[in-house]
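User: Here's a chain of 266 residues. Predict its fold as tokens.
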Amino acid sequence: MSANSGSGIPRTEANAAVLLLNLGTPAAPTASAVRHYLAEFLSDRRVIDYPRWLWLPLLYGAILRVRPRRSARAYAKIWTPQGSPLLVNSQNLANRLSAHLGDRTRVALAMRWLPARRAVARRPLKPASRGAALLLGCWVLVIALSQWMPYDFSSNRGMIRAKIAALSFVPFGGYVGGSDLNALNDLLVKLALAAPVGVLAAFIHRRRSLPALTVPIALGLFTALFTIVEAGQLFLPTRSPDPTDVAVGVLGALGGLFLGRWIKEE
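Assistant: Prediction complete.
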């Protein structure tokens, strides 16, 4: 660089460029825009270096449910008619610097997080998707292990035939034998086990080559999952499969799916 006479700002030579960098800003002083901005900002490993399996559920399940509304109110107090004060002032600075340096020097403004476009705002879903897929696989394993205890599998054909013959398709027929309190407890436990399946499924970002997770597709996948879990009890001498448990699991997972979509949309 060569100093400019009469000015304290150095003037760059020809074919030079100046890049102004800033952290970023939300696209609008609204909870939705701030949520998109914070999701991208706080999903960056260079900002938060916690393990993904621990941080992303906390981020999407708690932080992005509370903090955007508070931050949006603070942004609204300083927002200008032209837009974000950080972006407006940075652009003004870039324009003034460009005018000072002349046509031979290019001045550019860049921000690390600027979710002004819908495509940019959706990028944080990719790391969240990987974490949700991992957690979903682990949770399915938890469900299977909890329903297949004590893991004393047997391939006795007579036992399997007897269990198939004893299957009851009367709703909640298997819950009638015990007390009402125990039946209610079993029902709530199964719903609680099934709901996270739907919540995590809602956060899995599908590939373009795959169909969207519509309710009919989710219904089929959840039915297959809980049918396999119940079918495994055919090989356990101390357990008996119940078609009602399949229905309860599917209902719990569908409820979780709608809850997960609501959380993600907010």
